[in-house]
Amino acid sequence: MPTYHYRCKNCGYDFTEQQSFSDDPITVCPKCSQEQVHKVYSAVPIEFKGHGFYRTDKSSK
Description:
- By secondary structure, this protein is an all-beta fold.
- Helices cover 0% and strands 23% of the residues.
- Strands 2-1-3 form a 3-stranded antiparallel β-sheet, with no helix packed on it.
């Protein structure tokens, strides 16, 4: 089950919730009870492995 990061625009409360893909997003803050919550998106870590990804690798001719 995916974990989503949320932040309240009203009070700044950060929290995470495990939700199914079919669940509706959370909109009400559990701390201040205002409808000011939005999902926080972050970059997905990418790791390149293997030949050809590094500057020190020899380029193919």
